[in-house]
Design a protein that fits this description.
The structure holds two protein chains of two kinds.
Chain A: E1 2-6, H1 7-18, E2 32-38, E3 41-47, E4 51-58, E5 60-63, E6 66-70, H2 71-80, E7 85-91, E8 96-101, E9 104-109, E10 128-130, H3 132-142, E11 157-163, E12 166-172, E13 176-183, E14 192-197, H4 198-208, E15 215-219, E16 225-230, E17 233-238, E18 257-262, H5 263-277, E19 283-291, E20 294-303, E21 307-314, E22 316-318, E23 326-330, H6 331-341, E24 345-350, E25 357-361, E26 364-371, E27 374-375
Antiparallel strand pairs in A: 1-5, 1-7, 2-3, 2-6, 3-4, 4-17, 7-8, 8-9, 10-15, 11-12, 11-14, 12-13, 13-26, 15-16, 16-17, 18-22, 18-24, 19-20, 19-23, 20-21, 24-25, 25-26
Helix pairs in contact in A: 1-2, 3-4, 5-6
Chain B: H1 9-20, H2 24-37, E1 42-48, E2 54-59, H3 99-106, E3 108-114, E4 121-127, E5 130-137, E6 142-148, H4 155-158, H5 164-181, E7 186-190, E8 197-198, H6 205-213, H7 215-220, E9 222-223, E10 236-241, E11 254-258, E12 261-262, H8 266-275, E13 288-293, E14 299-300, E15 311-312, H9 315-333, H10 337-340, H11 347-352, E16 361-362, H12 377-382, E17 396-401, E18 405-410, E19 413-418, H13 419-437, E20 442-452, H14 455-463, H15 465-470, E21 476-477, E22 482-489, H16 497-509, H17 517-529, H18 539-550, E23 565-568, H19 570-576
Parallel strand pairs in B: 1-7, 11-13
Antiparallel strand pairs in B: 1-2, 2-6, 3-4, 3-6, 4-5, 7-8, 9-10, 10-13, 11-12, 14-15, 16-23, 17-18, 18-19, 19-23, 20-22, 21-22
Helix pairs in contact in B: 1-3, 2-5, 5-6, 8-9, 13-17, 13-18, 16-17
The chains are: A alpha+beta, B alpha+beta.
């Protein structure tokens, strides 16, 4: 193999595939990046067997070839080089590559590319096209609600359903549920559903960046892997077996009270109350008030032996308000959802202190977030 | 008048009876053993009042010939051995000829029996060994014995009976053991209120385990598969055992049998536990039913009338057969991930490596004996300031050793705090305080969790209803053996709710007496919610923990009675460095 490319391009490509390179593994080749040539491009691949990332950069290919070399070493060396053309040549005995850039050079020992695990490819099946920024938004709004512990492995994944021209992403961790529904760019003929690890989907969101090329994704016929195509980058993720809870039945069909508030007010009040809540058991008490001054949400928390606090924000209240129009939550769950919703109006729906609360954003019709309440002494 | 006199035969008989018959469960044991020796394959047991009011055992065995019915109740009368040489090869469960005699000495007994080939049966009634009725009866083949008024003439013995439910539980677990031992026999135990315990008599051990542990646990268990040479004359092991992940915190799910007899044997249970060494690192106990066939002349069961103790001629051979058989089964069939967890410490090493010249002193526990009853309620109720509060000195955290102990400097030398024990104490006191104020917070689950409980666990849940209610964790019945949980206590929200529930149950099953249910609840939760040994802690976390411990009412012990801290005082340090 003999190729040359720009330091800048190689450095960026290594940063991208580096996300998938295993840091600790008993299979040493997983700490390597595979470099190969294809159609006049330089192809870099990294995998930790959970996900694999492949990216292509423009290069001048003199002779074709492929090799794997330690990813960390290569990327640290390339990052330190001046911004100029790098010559990459492979050496057969001992198996290695030599890199030359201006007056700097290095030899890095490599391993046989045959040892590198094969990356699953998808040649058939429907390709789903989604607007990149919509997908990124979906991932941000859904992925944080997935479980991080492995007590129920299926909950560390995100359920993806695609049907005709709609998609639905859902994540739950046993105490909350986030669902995002959106439109595909092009309708597809067959319905499809799978569970993908939240971590892999978060990588997809990260790789989209500010790009505007449509993201295409597809699933292997056996349903074992999903492949996302984001511009020059391909990411392949293992899919998770198991059955995801029937999340639609967990979304309350109706509510007794709804309050529309400015999220900037709401999240500030929640953060303020969280200061006291964190010394207690992380409990926020929310009471809906509707008196002559208008509708309000009163948010309070207290910590035994420390103190308590209370805050009020204005809102538009729907439904009959009484003493029972109140609910308590773990502050973390409420703070996290308000955090991703950003600026704008949010709607807060409750029925009773012992039924789930729902948070929606007025600007995002497809998004529903269900939080389970806590039972406390009022 | 002479001081030493020979007891009358009446009194010596009663003393002997007391050795065989202690409580309702021992009556059931003797009667079921008789039924099994009679070759029954269907045994029906029903009790009322936990067996204190009455016990009925009915079987379809060989029955007793009409002319022998009365002899059967005489002392030392048995159909099971005839000559002295028979004693060396006992294959029946009973043989001493004392069971019926002892039972009839202390209760009212009615026996109805019809032997095979007889056209009619016999029914006799005895009251404290006096025949009160005898008649012919038209009944099916087999024997039915009803025992009532147990020890009614011996109030001193009756005093030692536990509550009806406790006596009922003993019978329940006894029948479970018989069922494991005799998978070919269909047992049914009916104790009135609770669901009857039933086995199918299919001959498959796993079916019996399903009846005892529930389908989900039983299906995970592994059958012991050892191949023996044709020529092998030594002990043979069979049975079914749990995977290393199915361990429990006590030995209540270990069933050991030798030649079809339930036994207690340190050799066997030690061998069983040793076989799991290295598969998982915790201090828990494996579950399983081990059946050992030992040549009859290699084992002595005639150690005690209750026959639960056995002696082996060749202990080390038995040990190696049991340990080796289980271990090779585990190696062959155990899921791989358990082996990866290999972090077992060698206990002999840690014990031996303690320098003999190092005498850490356990801080005064003020009469709180290690292993004793955790008793905090008393302090809270009196609202008294604990005298120990002053005992705990102000401490400055220096660092952490082995990710397990916090090293602190105090007014007198070095203090080492066990982080797990300390945190356990902190949580324990918080739960007790919360429970007394009724402010335990619970988090509702998105989806209810479905749990399968075995009959013992159902009883435990029933007995500790208060605790589960307070935690909002009350299991709702959802079909046979199946329950739903809708909430978890806040402090367990991070953990797997199913796992938490089982850990609470096993903590509740430990035989520790508590002052109040709040204490028991706190005890069941604290250990589980506390940080583990081996967790790295930041300086802030350690300082906070020490601060919280300082404000505990009883900071020097964890709820189990282990010390939370040891002190190496200045004097010791100076002596160690030969300064004085």
């Amino acid at each position: 193999m003999h190729v040359s490319c720009l330091q800048q391009n190689l450095s960026r490509a290594l940063a991208i595939v580096g996300r998938a390179v295993a840091t600790r593994s008993n299979l040493p080749v997983l700490q390597n990046v595979k470099i190969s040539t294809e159609d006049g491009m330089l192809v870099l691949t990294g995998t930790n067997l959970d996900i694999a990332i492949t990216t292509r950069i423009g290069a001048q290919v003199e002779t074709e070839g492929e090799i794997t070399i330690p990813a960390r070493l290569l990327s640290d060396f390339v990052n330190s080089l001046p911004d100029d053309r790098i010559e990459i040549k492979s050496v057969v005995e001992p198996l290695s590559v030599s890199l030359d850039c201006q007056r700097f050079s290095a030899n890095i020992n490599g391993t046989d590319p045959e040892e590198f695990p094969p990356i699953p490819t998808v040649d058939e099946g429907a390709t789903i096209k989604v607007d990149p920024q919509l997908l990124k938004d979906t991932v941000t709004h859904v992925a944080f609600a997935a479980a991080t512990e492995d007590s129920r492995p299926v909950l560390t994944g995100i359920k993806v359903e695609v049907n005709q021209s709609d998609f639905t992403f859902a994540a739950a961790d046993g105490f909350r549920l986030a669902v995002y529904e959106g439109k595909l760019l092009e309708p597809i003929s067959e319905a499809m559903e799978f569970i993908i690890p939240a971590k892999a989907l978060q990588e997809v969101g990260r790789l989209i960046g500010t790009g505007d090329t449509a993201v295409e994704f597809t699933v292997t016929p056996a349903g074992t892997h999903a492949l996302f195509n984001i511009g020059n980058v391909e990411i392949v993720s293992q899919l998770m077996p198991g059955s995801f809870p029937n999340f639609r039945s967990l979304i309350p069909a109706e509510y007794k009270n709804r309050v529309i508030v400015q999220n900037s007010d709401f999240s500030r009040a929640v953060k303020t109350s969280s200061i006291f809540a964190r010394d207690g058991s992380g409990i926020l008490r929310i009471q809906i008030v509707n008196d002559e001054d208008g509708g309000k949400l009163s948010i309070s928390s207290r910590a035994e032996e420390v103190g308590d606090n209370q805050g009020e924000i204005d809102g538009v209240v729907e439904g009959d308000v009484d003493e029972e129009s109140r609910i308590a939550f773990n502050n973390k769950y409420l703070a996290e959802v308000l955090d991703v919703l950003g600026e704008g109006e949010v709607s807060f729906e409750i029925t009773s202190a012992s039924s789930p609360g729902v948070v929606r954003a007025t600007g995002k019709e497809g998004y529903t977030h269900v939080v389970m309440p806590m039972f406390v002494q009022w | 008048m002479p001081v030493i006199r020979k007891l009358t035969s009446e009194i010596s008989a009663l003393i002997a009876a007391g050795e065989v018959i202690e409580r309702p469960a021992s009556v059931v044991k003797e009667l079921v053993e008789n039924s099994l020796d009679a070759g029954a394959d269907r045994i029906y047991i029903s009790t009322s009042g936990g067996g204190i009011d009455s016990i009925v055992v009915s079987d379809n065995g060989t029955g007793i010939n009409p002319e022998e019915v009365e002899v059967a109740f005489e002392r030392h009368s048995t159909s099971k051995i005839y000559t002295q040489s028979d004693l060396d090869s006992i294959s029946t469960l009973g043989f001493r000829g004392e069971a019926l005699y002892s039972i009839s000495s202390v209760s009212e007994v009615e026996l109805a029996t019809r032997a095979r080939g007889e056209v009619k049966g016999v029914r006799i009634g005895l009251n404290n060994r006096v025949l009160i009725s005898k008649s012919f009866a038209g009944i099916d083949y087999g024997t039915t014995i009803s025992v009532s008024e147990l020890f009614s003439q011996f109030p001193a013995r009756r005093k030692f009976f536990k509550s009806e439910s406790a006596e009922g539980n003993r019978i329940h677990s006894l029948i479970q053991k018989f069922a494991i031992c005799n998978p070919r026999v269909a047992f049914e135990l009916n104790q009135g209120s609770s669901r009857p315990f039933r086995t199918s008599g299919s001959g498959v051990l796993r079916d019996v385990m399903v009846a005892i542990l529930g389908i989900s646990e039983a299906s995970k268990m592994i059958e012991i598969s050892e191949d023996y040479d044709q020529a092998w004359q030594g002990p043979v092991i069979t049975g079914i055992i749990g995977t290393p992940d199915q361990k429990r915190s006590n030995r209540s799910r270990v069933f050991l049998f030798v030649n079809g007899r339930l036994v207690q044997s340190r050799t066997l249970s030690f061998a069983f536990e040793q076989a799991y060494k290295g598969f998982s690192s915790d201090n828990k106990f494996p579950i399983g039913a081990i059946k050992l066939q030992v040549p009859l002349d290699e084992v002595d069961v005639n150690v005690h009338p209750a026959k639960t103790e056995v002696r082996f001629k060749n202990e080390s051979q038995v040990f190696s057969v049991v340990q080796g058989g289980i271990r090779s089964t585990l190696l062959k069939q155990s899921p791989v991930q358990s082996i990866v967890n290999y972090t077992q410490k060698d206990p002999t090493f840690t014990e031996g490596s303690e320098p003999s010249a190092f005498w850490p002193t356990i801080l005064s526990t003020g009469g709180f004996e290690a292993g004793g009853t955790p008793d905090l309620g008393a302090f809270v109720e009196q609202g008294a300031v604990s005298p120990y509060q002053e005992v705990l000195p102000l401490l400055r955290v220096l660092g952490q050793v082995s990710d397990t102990y916090i090293v602190c400097e105090g007014p007198d030398g070095i203090y080492l705090i066990d982080q797990h024990a300390a945190h356990e104490r902190v949580i324990f006191e918080k739960i007790v305080a919360d429970a007394k104020r009724r402010t335990i917070e619970t988090q509702m689950l998105l989806e209810p969790i479905n749990l399968e409980l075995d009959s013992d666990q159902e009883i435990l849940v029933e007995e500790n209803k208060d605790i589960f209610n307070a935690f909002g964790m009350t299991p709702e019945p959802f079909g046979p053996n199946s329950y739903l949980i809708r909430n978890v206590p806040k402090m367990l929200a991070e953990a797997d709710p199913r796992d938490s529930f089982h850990k609470m149950l096993s903590a509740l099953s430990e035989q520790v007496e508590f002052k109040s249910w709040e204490d028991r609840a706190a005890y069941s939760l604290a250990c589980h919610a506390a940080i583990r040994a081996g967790k790295k802690m930041s300086y802030r976390e350690m300082s906070l923990l020490v601060k919280q411990l300082e404000s505990c009412l009883q900071p020097n012990n964890c709820p189990h009675g282990r010390p939370t801290m040891i002190n190496m005082n200045k004097n010791h340090l100076e002596r160690e460095f030969s300064r004085i």
